[in-house]
Amino acid sequence: MQYSKLGNTGLIVSRLSFGAMTFGKGAGLFASVSKVEEDAAQTMIGKALDAGVHHDFNKSISGFHKALSFDDSDPEIWYNLGGAYYSVGKFDSAKIAWLQTLQLKPNHQQAQQGLRALPPHS
Known about the structure:
This protein has 122 residues and is mainly α. It has helices spanning 15-21, 29-53, 57-70, 75-87, 91-104, 109-117; strands spanning 3-5, 12-14.
């Protein structure tokens, strides 16, 4: 099991505890846990985008999945995941990611364009 330091509290908690303590944005301790997760998600997104820029799409896909483990309600993560899948020819997975993007943000123009760019029968 992996353990992490909980902010500036000095407490060492398991990753499982981190997940159990996160109830969204709140006050006090829960706000700092939420901030830790937000920072971790942003770090993962940055790494995933960088991997995509360098054409390492499998690493990009992995990074976006890790970012989704912190925040699966962000349509931009889903959109970029779809783009990474598209880049490696995994069109069914790209479609799923772009449809999820549109569930979260129905007017997302780039996700709509991505769906139109898919080969027939994807």
